[in-house]
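Researcher: Good morning. I'm working through a list of sequences from a screen, and I'd like to move beyond sequence-only analysis. For each chain I'm collecting a predicted structure so we can compare shapes side by side. This is the next one on the list. No need for commentary yet; just the structure.
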Amino acid sequence: LPDIRGREQILNVHLGKVPAADNVKASVIARGTPGFSGADLANLVNEAALFAAKANKRLVEMEDMEKAKDKIMMGAERRSMVMNEKEKEMTAYHEAGHAIVGRLVPNHDPVYKVSIIPRGRALGITMFLPEEDRYSNSKQQLESQISTLYGGRIAEKLIYGEDAVTTGASNDIQRATELAHNMVTKWGLSDNMGPLSYGEDEGEVFLGRSITQHKAVSDLTAKAIDEDVRTLINRNYQRAEKLLTDNVEKLHTMTKLLIKYETIDSDQIDAIMEGREPGEPKDWADSSSNPPTSSDTSTDSDSDAPGEPADQLH
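Model: Good morning. Structure tokens for this chain:
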């Protein structure tokens, strides 16, 4: 994948093929698109040109580039899917839970956007965007990701009670479990198991299941792996639970804002977390004549199994 300089060069090539406004800067776009391939960047410019054409604009503006980036990163909006008010509120709490935990744990990617507009199978999405290209993750970063993945489920439990928790966090739980398992068995990030690799490279692993099936390790070692994975999960679940309990007023505030605007950005999230009055989303003035209708963490809240935190929680 191209680095930031490579992305800027690729963007300049494709931007040269469309009528772009002066405020469209390839260097700025390149900083906000880590992980994009050359094809992704070409698609980004093409999608932006389509957004501009639909709005009868003569030039492609930075706003069109942002809309195109959201579509590529988070998926196309499904405005035809209308949630009832209860589902909308629960999705908002779920996504706000991801965002708040992600904002508070150490060394986590910044929150880019949070949305409760359905995209694909997701009812809502929390998108985290790294500030620079990254090719590896530290133990601290991985544990922060695990805590953030559980933020949606914990928010539901905190607001509605244990019995009202939905299936929305199933994808979050799967991802958190996979991260914890890889930390123990692949990446040598377990204090108890040490810097060793256990078992085979499986496509899907849940705790010690595939390891015991293939007998790659002894039953005793598989049990120790299980215990280490559970310890990692429990520690980070409890951390997320404490963070949301201590910041429940911010959880309420962010949820109300999501219900009002359906999508909020990093400026509003920063304002809430710093105790300031959040303003309107950057593009709200442009869309106020046609306000959003009721309609997921990257993380997603999935229609069958909502909730992942952007990177996506998606």
